[in-house]
Amino acid sequence: MIGQALHFRYFHSTNVPSAIDRYTDEVRRVYGVIEMALAERREAIIMELDQENAASYSQGLTPLSQSRYFDYPIWLVGDRVTIADLCFVTWNYVVDRIGIDLKAEFPEVYKWTKHMMRRPAVLRALKGSE
């Protein structure tokens, strides 16, 4: 969807606002689904690892953001990065070009992307080396 949005915004021979809007909206929908999945995984990880404060989080007395595990890496599948995560790296790297601000609109996706961008192999791949 990001590729389609980029195509219609920058490369299509004629300006088709409805196509740009359609694909940009679809990208937002997909990121919304990923955002919820990552947020649910983060909550589960915090509840599992921070058991001494779990009751306070569950009762809404303490925000999850106060957990020492709040910045713990969260992945789409399991407890380590997989191809399911990595296939988003290049798209997350350019999504701002279609007017989507991951940090403002999808904070969990933004944190997830930051964790992937810290990986040396990801940085090398984006630079085109090795």
UniProtKB/TrEMBL annotation:
This is Unnamed protein product.
